[in-house]
What we know:
12 helices, 9 strands, three-stranded mixed sheet, Lyase 2-enoyl-coa Hydratase, Chain  A, domain 2, 2-enoyl-CoA Hydratase, Chain A, domain 1
Amino acid sequence: MTFLQTERQDSILVLTMNQPETRNALTGNTAVDEFVRICAEVTHDRSIRVVVLTGAGPVFSSGGNVKDMQRYERDAITTEAIREEYRNGIQRLPKALYNLDVPVICAVNGPAIGAGLDLACMCDVRIASEKATFAESFVKVGIVPGDGGAWLLPRAVGMSRACEMAFTGDALTAQEALARGLVSRVVAHDALMHESLRLAARIAANPGAVLRMTKRLLREGERSSLESLLELSASYQAIAHTTADHREAVRAFIEKRSPVFD
């Protein structure tokens, strides 16, 4: 059984984690392989402008499969083998999803726990159901964020709040997550996908190539100097000015009509 269910709505790709029996756990299954494969497909499919990610069932994602972790002791797996398992397993997920050029909206339908929270932080926009909760809970099971959470979470909520969440493992309600900037809005549970898709449609109405370049600039801006980012911005802008979408947008603005992009 596949982990990710896909649905195409014009230029929007909806990904649904569909293993509610495991609370959409990200380890002990094919989740990482499927995410990596689909991210590669999206990168090469220029007709996709937005991705929406959500979970089936009452939980967004429980993160790592804790029951599966018993095998480390049972099978006497060495520390070096575990290290390589992380490198070649769950750590491939942030490299694929966080670096995806297409805007990604995360529709958090329920608890986002441990690596499930970090998965949400790999996305660009987070919309929470009123039933959502968020916990950087690795410390509760005696491990550290092994999937990049120590890099992702401070960028989402700031270092002090990230430290509090990681050191306590305590969960935030949807409203607390909103107050901390972890999510951009909280909506009624039954309206979650409607609101997420409505936002996706507003984004997808814009030129696909420019959306990808804009996201790349935002990502590069997190770790570049202003001077470096200005140079990259100038290069991207030179490309944007030569596109048919730009010419159409300018004509539509002057003619006071809605643009029609390829």
